[in-house]
Predict the 3D structure of the following.
Amino acid sequence: MSRWPVLAAAVVTVVAGLGVRLLWDGPFAKYAGDALYTVLIYLLVVLVLPRIRPVWAALGSAALSWAIEFAQLWEIPPLLRPLLGSTFNPPDLFWYAVGAVVACAAHLATRSTFR
């Protein structure tokens, strides 16, 4: 897969994440942010490894998101808290999986378009 569409999708994902937090509050914004966080990790994986299969990228991005969430059970240095969070929240695990599945589905749907 070409890296330019992936980079563009990453920028759109960041803008969407910021927009969701700007326009909404509460559970919707939080869980949409969780899903978009995993989508961004997915896109970064595909950017670094453009030949990776979508399912492996989804599993890797979900696993990394889960690992970061579970790391919150211990002390996160204050400098890293804006990026990694600070409080373990079990429902986040579901929304990370949703983000990985949506990213994988979008990747599979657009794969032939952006070769």
About this structure: Helices lie at 3-23, 27-48, 54-71, 81-84, 90-110.
